[in-house]
Automatic annotation (TrEMBL):
A single MF term (Gene Ontology): sulfotransferase activity
Upper classification of the organism: Eukaryota, Metazoa, Chordata, Craniata, Vertebrata
Domain of life: Eukaryota
E.C. designation(s): 2.8.2.-
The organism of origin for this protein: Eublepharis macularius
Record-level GO cellular component terms: Golgi membrane
Annotated TM spans: 7-28
Enzyme class: transferase
InterPro entries with a match to the protein in the record: Carb_sulfotrans_8-10 (IPR018011), Sulfotransferase (IPR005331)
Protein name in UniProt: Carbohydrate sulfotransferase
Record's keyword terms, sorted: Carbohydrate metabolism, Glycoprotein, Golgi apparatus, Membrane, Signal-anchor, Transferase, Transmembrane, Transmembrane helix
Compartment(s) where it occurs, according to its Swiss-Prot or TrEMBL record: Golgi apparatus membrane
Principal location class: Golgi
Recorded family membership: Belongs to the sulfotransferase 2 family.
Membrane disposition: Single-pass type II membrane protein
Length: 412
């Protein structure tokens, strides 16, 4: 063998190894997805809507047409074949560009998406239903928030060109057709009561107070935006009033922890608790390892900040920026949990909700627990180090920046 032959064979070994590795990686991902799926089935209906899988790492090169359903496949394809004319900057994927007739049509439709939202534009709020001065102060704050987010997003979009898949982008948005509303659900920021209000607005219930927690989250009353076809999504994004309610990231995180790990839970304990205890607790006893109950806040934070988490993320502690994509979907109204009732009631008047409908103020789960207020948050944060607090801030930095939350919990 001369030198050239040696070189070629080494190269071929390398390539074969790489291919094998990629194949195995895809296979492992699939197995992982399957076992999660099985677990979900075993556990039945219990957590149907409380659980979302971690948005899978966009599997770029290894994607095959069978793996995606037709519509999302088309979307990725048409967007990528328009790399520079992409309706959402940074939305890319690599798939072959050959398009069928149907795909051509969708491509045309997608072109119009450009007019919907980007570059982010502050669309004036229609205030024709507001007749008195009652809401003046609330409105001023609202306009400031809108302008703030707009200015942030202009810079952010230009600099970081976020990657996103259209169907995933709208997957957390609920639709209310009567009042032409789109509500992006942020768990632990008043979302159960918002869903109740949507059910009432939709005419499916007379009052929000009689709708149980289970009916809200497991019932089939509300439709999500990703259940419509492209045309339906497009029309609604363009013409409906889009609303989001957010919350201080640290408070939201503590609230999620208390809700999911400090009360019996037939999903979060066996699925998340077990994995967390197994990885982060030294000398865990058999009971903790089998039930997954009793996760400590510190352990939960270790899991959150781990770049190799033993189990994926969950919507209750996922970043708002990833759940609702505020820089891509131009929300018309930005409510805050800190001023929930005031913001929500102003919003209800803005959209011309029935006079008698006000935002419910009850806490339907663990209602005897103290609410997660700033005092409670500080108690939890005292259990972790300053470095960990800083890393939590970094993890949620986009949420902090988009909604002008101060870092006051980071350095108490
Ligand atoms: C504002 O809302 C009112 C009531 O729904 C409607 O009649 C009016 O056309 C809207 N104005 C604009 C500019 O959209
Ligand atoms: C709501 O519940 C109360 C009692 O639980 C009942 O009296 C009332 O009729 C219910 N209202 C509606 C609209 O179902
Ligand atoms: C952002 O928050 C700070 C306080 O943390 C406040 O002083 C400032 O007015 C806020 N900016 C806007 C535009 O709301």
């Amino acid at each position: 063998m001369n030198l050239k032959q040696v070189y070629v064979s080494v190269l071929m070994f390398g390539v074969a190894g790489l291919l094998l590795f990629m194949y195995l990686q895809a296979w492992i991902d699939e197995q992982h997805a399957e076992s999660e799926e099985k677990l979900k089935q075993q556990m039945g209906q219990d957590f149907k809507f409380c659980y979302t899988e971690e948005p899978r790492r966009a599997p770029r090169k290894l994607i095959t047409s069978q793996k995606l359903d037709k519509s999302s496949m088309v979307l990725i394809e048409s967007v990528s074949s328009h790399a520079d004319a992409s309706p959402f900057p940074g939305m890319t994927a690599s798939l072959p560009p050959e398009l069928s007739e149907e795909q051509q049509k969708i491509k045309l439709l997608l072109k119009q998406f450009k007019q919907v939202n980007l570059p982010p534009a502050v669309r004036p709020l229609n205030k024709s239903f507001i007749q008195d001065d009652r809401w003046k102060a609330t409105d001023e704050i609202q306009e400031k928030r809108r302008a703030f987010l707009y200015n942030f997003c202009k810079k952010y979009i230009r600099e970081s060109k976020p990657l996103i898949h259209l169907m995933r982008m709208v997957s957390r948005i609920y639709v209310e057709d009567k009042h032409k509303l789109l509500y992006c659900e942020v768990p632990k920021a008043g979302c159960s009561n918002w869903k109740r209000v949507l059910i009432v607005l939709n005419g499916l219930a007379k009052t929000a107070y009689n709708i149980t927690h289970d009916a809200v989250h497991y019932g089939k009353h509300l439709k999500k935006l990703d259940s419509y076809d492209l045309k339906g999504i497009h029309m609604r994004l363009k013409t409906y009033t889009k609303v989001i309610f957010v919350r201080d990231p640290m408070e939201r995180l503590v609230s999620a922890f208390r809700d999911k790990f400090e009360h019996p839970n037939s999903y979060y304990h066996p699925v998340f608790g077990k994995a967390i205890i197994k990885k982060y607790r030294l000398n865990a006893d058999g009971k903790a390892l089998t039930t997954g109950s009793g996760v400590q806040f510190k352990e939960f934070i270790q899991y959150l900040l781990d770049s190799h988490r033993p189990i994926g993320m969950d919507i209750h502690w996922e970043q708002i920026s990833k759940l609702c994509h505020p820089c891509i979907i131009n929300y018309d109204f930005i409510g805050k949990f800190e001023t929930l009732e005031e913001d929500a009631n102003y919003f209800l008047r803005l959209i011309g909700a029935p006079e008698g409908l006000t935002f419910p103020n009850f806490k339907d789960r663990h209602s005897t627990d103290e609410r997660t207020n700033s005092e409670v948050v500080r108690q939890y944060l005292a259990e972790i180090s300053a470095t960990e607090r800083q890393l939590i801030y970094d993890f949620y930095s986009l949420d902090y920046l988009m909604f002008n939350y101060s870092a006051s919990y980071v350095k108490p």
